[in-house]
Specification:
Length: 179
């Protein structure tokens, strides 16, 4: 029989149909693999998001603890400043009392004319008292300097506390969104 033109057409259409079906099967397999990869990546992203929320919450709690410690430190430094002021006043009082020791050394010199042995001992004491007087003056100045520096530290701690609160405030707002 001679080649029927319809038969060639039917074979061509059948061949195209088989090729199309093979192509569709291969595409379906590739789509299945792609969907599986997308699902795995989505699950990993969800797990990562849960960990990130947890770490943000831990960071917020840590920053809150730091702010509370800074508040406590500010309070304690304020008390130290008050105590240093009291100590400086007491040292000033001692310094004022030591200034009267010069008068005592003068009277002791007068007594040394009648009592030479007591006079020698008292003159040594007068020298020591003058040294103590000088040392107390230096100590008074040092304590006032310490008091000023403690005041500066208290101010700086207050600024740090405020800055940490400003950092922690956005974290606190995020707590209402996350568990």
């Amino acid at each position: 029989m001679a080649d029927d033109p319809r038969r060639v057409l039917i074979e061509t259409v059948a061949r195209i149909g088989r090729e199309t079906q093979l192509h569709l099967d291969e595409r379906a397999r590739h789509f299945w693999i792609t969907n599986l990869v997308i699902i795995i990546i989505s699950l990993l992203l969800v797990i990562l998001a849960v960990f990130n929320v947890y770490y943000v919450r831990v960071l917020y709690k840590d920053l809150d603890g730091i702010v509370q410690n800074m508040d406590s430190m500010h309070h304690n430094l304020s008390e130290v400043t008050g105590n240093m002021s009291t100590i400086a006043e007491h040292v000033q009082s001692i310094d004022n009392s030591i200034q009267y020791m010069d008068n005592i050394s003068i009277h002791t010199a007068e007594m040394s004319q009648s009592l030479p042995r007591i006079g020698n001992a008292m003159s040594d004491m007068a020298v020591n008292v003058d040294v103590i007087n000088q040392d107390m003056g230096l100590m008074t100045f040092s304590l006032f300097n310490i008091e000023q520096r403690t005041g500066h530290m208290t101010g700086n701690v207050s600024l740090i506390r405020q800055n940490v609160r400003q950092i922690a405030r956005p974290m606190g707002m995020m707590n209402s969104f996350f568990p």
